[in-house]
Amino acid sequence: MRKTSVVSEAEIQEQQAFCEKVFSVISKRYEGKPLACVVTYGCQQNVADSEHIKGMLAEMGYGFTEEREQAKLIIFNTCAVREHAEDRVFGNVGALKSYKRQNPDVIIACCGCMMQQQHIADRIKQSFPFVDLVFGTHVVYKLPELLYAALTRKKRVFELPDMDGVIAEGVPVLRDNDRKAWLPIMYGCNNFCTYCIVPYVRGRERSREAQVIIDEARELIAQGYKEITLLGQNVNSYGKDLEPRVTFAELLRRIAALDGDFRIRFMTSHPKDCTNELLEVMASCDKVAKHLHLPFQCGSSRVLKAMNRGYTREQYLDRINYAKRLMGDELSLTSDIIVGFPGEIYEEFCETLSLVEEVKFTSLFTFIYSPRRGTPAAEMDDPVPYEEKAKWIGELIALQERISAENLQKYAGCVFKCFVTGRGKLGDNYFSARTDGNLIIEFEGDESLIGSFQTIKVTEPLTYVLKGELIERN
């Protein structure tokens, strides 16, 4: 018996009926096939949500465009993790005011994490009266019903239930890539890091059934997908709400046992839940990428406690060192760092620098602390000015640039099986490929190689990428 609410098959069928109703309305309202523009901000989970949004829209009869002023439906799928992302949303939504005035039959909608915050929804209601539809993270599967209401009612539609979240299976998906797939395995977060808004806008942790995930992975492989990335706010917590429990490591092992030529990635891992079992599965399964994204956020144990991260500096390094012992030079390590958390002093920031120097990450995602309304950290004293924090992050970036360049030097002459992702930046005939350990190699080739695994030899380590040559066309 599971602990998480699951949307019933009858409710999913009801949404399919609303798809037909929307199709009937837009067929009469617009000439030709109306186009929808879905604008996505934030993390890979938001990208996966947008693929489901597009899947439902396709069933309703919409085509797609990236040009907002060609669209009859514009949906902003928003991110609430940092203030900069919120500011971009408000700016881009506001820019559509005149377009809406000139084209009153256009529907403008906002959804995602920003909208799940009441003060944001109130601002949209008061300051952006031309926005027709606002819905939260927990009701994405109800888009057909909500859009039908927006198309047929005279009043605006706001659907922002205060709830822990649900699991909705059977929602259509239209993927952005035909060789690389996002595969959500769970939603929500129970960690409540003091700086983070995610648990408040994404709800509690809830896992999809293991067999449903495995069946979807099998179908993706049969369709020719070569890279499958398992997604969750904290994938290491997968299965805690399932009975009997299936751990994330066991799920990873079962997917890796499927037939086919494919590679599995996953994100994001939380250090406090990164088990020996998970690292051992990574090391033993050839189809699991030897890339571990393990955010440590700060190198000071005192600051980590203030962040409510649930581990110390020493415990984090223990996880990293065990992973290195298992996977050696095959392992690629990346992380997230917040600079200037409230109350952090320069000496504590220097502990972050020393941890980076010790671990020697492949790359880092670094951010200056951004207060999120409604989180405990937003109420903490924060005496260090932004300008000082900017100097700190400059030091961190310079350190990581040196380490990244040093790391790349050791790959000269190495041969890798790589997934070719698209065009490169080194020249017109260059293409970009990713190694098992998430290193980027650019090489001369042609478009037919995109979406395939190829064998590439590194000829020259550069500052941020590797330059290589195709030695065996697969």
Per-chain topology:
Layout: H1 9-29, E1 35-40, H2 44-60, E2 63-64, E3 73-78, H3 83-94, H4 97-102, E4 107-112, H5 118-127, E5 133-135, H6 143-152, E6 157-159, E7 180-184, E8 186-187, H7 198-202, E9 206-207, H8 210-222, E10 227-231, H9 248-256, E11 263-267, H10 276-284, E12 291-293, H11 301-306, H12 313-327, E13 332-339, H13 346-359, E14 363-368, H14 386-409, E15 415-423, E16 430-434, E17 440-444, E18 453-461, E19 466-472
Parallel strand pairs: 1-2, 1-3, 3-4, 4-5, 5-6, 7-10, 10-11, 12-13, 13-14, 17-19
Antiparallel strand pairs: 8-9, 15-16, 15-18, 16-17, 18-19
Helix pairs in contact: 1-2, 1-6, 9-10, 10-12, 13-14
Task: Tell me what the structure shows.
The strands form five sheets. The protein has a six-stranded parallel β-sheet, with helices on both faces. The longest helix is centred in the C-terminal third of the chain and has 24 residues, at 386-409. Helix 1 packs across helix 2. The chain is 36% helix and 20% strand. Helix 2 (44-60) links the parallel strand 1 (35-40) and strand 2. The protein has helices at 9-29, 44-60, 83-94, 97-102, 118-127, 143-152, 198-202, 210-222, 248-256, 276-284, 301-306, 313-327, 346-359, 386-409, and strands spanning 35-40, 63-64, 73-78, 107-112, 133-135, 157-159, 180-184, 186-187, 206-207, 227-231, 263-267, 291-293, 332-339, 363-368, 415-423, 430-434, 440-444, 453-461, 466-472. It is globular. With 474 residues, it is α/β, with parallel strands linked by helices.
